[in-house]
Write a structure and sequence with these properties.
Chains A, B: It comes from Fonsecaea monophora. The structure is a homodimer. Chain A has about 260 residues and is of the alpha+beta class. Chain A is globular. The two termini of chain A are about 20 Å apart. The mean pLDDT of chain A is about 95. The interface between A and B is large, with 105 and 105 residues.
Chain lengths: ~260, ~260
């Protein structure tokens, strides 16, 4: 692992608890972001408001400058969602962009231990800090729209009506986040109880311990009432099958680790 | 619906887009929070840091004062997770508590339309604004620990080793958030395309449109290596079956709506 890239630790991204579960590895963090169907994006409150803004958005890691870059290389985070006039103003009012924190979390299992205190989740989570700007270049915007569309269903872009027309280009806003620091946390394995409980037959005999694996599962696709395409295309059916198999394999493996 | 409680609209919680999908209904918002296995909690950055804090936490709505209160009644949000010394300090340094924003989001389906621009998710999301304080009273803390444990698996608390001992009471921190404003958003139904695309046979003939329903699914529970309890208890098996059936019914129904 000595050759792999890591994000710099900053005071606010350094994980202070459960050190062994923390990662700053670029590939691990980018993978968690890309495996998350929703990201939560937070930025500072308005002057008169004590509550930070927090928005669910769709996002994925990518590099417009080096489109073939792998998950283990430096990437930006491209975000799509409702971009309010306030975000627009904030993201364009400074040359650096709007400071945002981005969270990605996947639950992989409910970890049931002898005592509530030792209960946990198996999970993967990542937090990114960076500066968000609106993508202005039409070329980069179309590239990012394709990247994000294909992050939801691989190969969907070219199987839909493209390119976007000028009204669609105008109404779509893409945020590009230059990531300055990031950290990830992972928990996997079964329950870990303390000797004070594992040595008590009255407790161990009556308390089931183990993991309920959790997966985000795609069900059988349902054609819309206006669908005219003959049958479910192979690229969708394949993705549903492969994504489900991958998610289940991950969660079951995480549950069976010590 | 005239008799149901609603959260007050504030400038920052008023939903400015897709008005028809917005809700301020107390029961709808509390249900989204309780159906979410993870909440994202955000609060303002430190003075020297432009990035808001954002943390995944486990949480549930409840009322210690009126434990039998329903989801349609005023409730607090109880949170469990890693409470840093910074949160401790911030949540105790003002009588009002630490201003936090809490996001709950569930993805119910991938909505695939004729054009990328009309792609969407079926989802339910809620944002709460409120003031977080550390629960100091031992009685309320144990009550909240039971509430949160049973929110993960109903009835788990009394089937595990309780009550918590003094070391567990000391190491567990519970945040209680007094909610001052909240909003929710829901999207359900199939793809909605525009006439410019639906009238083009070359587009409709080659583009499959519909919904891939998405559910958070519990797999078959896996006993830990140290499990001594004879078989999977009925309360866990029942919950796994019922939660999966409920989640799938919701996602399939959402996919089939117009």
């Amino acid at each position: 692992m000595a050759d792999s890239l890591t994000y710099p630790k900053t005071k606010s991204t350094t994980v202070n608890r459960y050190h062994t579960r923390a990662t700053y590895d670029v590939q691990a963090i980018h993978s968690i972001v890309n495996d998350s169907s929703v990201l939560h994006v937070s930025f500072a409150p308005d002057a008169e408001d004590p509550f930070p803004a927090i928005l669910p958005m769709i996002g994925t890691m990518g590099s417009y400058e080096y489109p073939s870059a792998g998950l283990d290389e430096p990437l930006d985070c491209y975000l799509h969602g409702y971009v309010s006039s306030r975000i627009m103003r904030l993201a364009t009012s400074s040359p650096q962009g709007l400071p945002v924190s981005i969270a990605a979390t996947k639950v992989d299992g409910l970890v049931l231990a002898l005592t509530p205190n030792a209960h946990s989740y198996n999970y993967r989570s990542a937090i990114l800090h960076g500066y968000a700007r609106i993508v202005e270049s039409a070329e980069e915007k179309v590239w990012a729209m394709e990247l994000i569309t294909n992050s939801v269903v691989p190969d969907r872009w070219r199987h839909s009506r493209v390119p976007p027309d000028s009204a669609e280009m105008q109404s779509t806003k893409i945020l590009k986040v230059k990531v300055t620091a990031a950290s990830g946390k992972t928990r996997e394995g079964g329950p870990h109880d303390e000797a004070k409980d594992t040595t008590r037959d009255d407790v161990t005999g009556k308390t089931w311990v183990g993991v309920v694996p959790v997966v985000e599962k795609f069900c059988e696709p349902i054609a819309g009432p206006d669908n005219k395409a003959a049958e479910l295309p192979k690229y969708i059916a394949d993705y549903v099958g492969e994504a489900n198999a991958k998610a289940e394999a991950y969660a079951l493996n995480a549950a069976r680790l010590p």
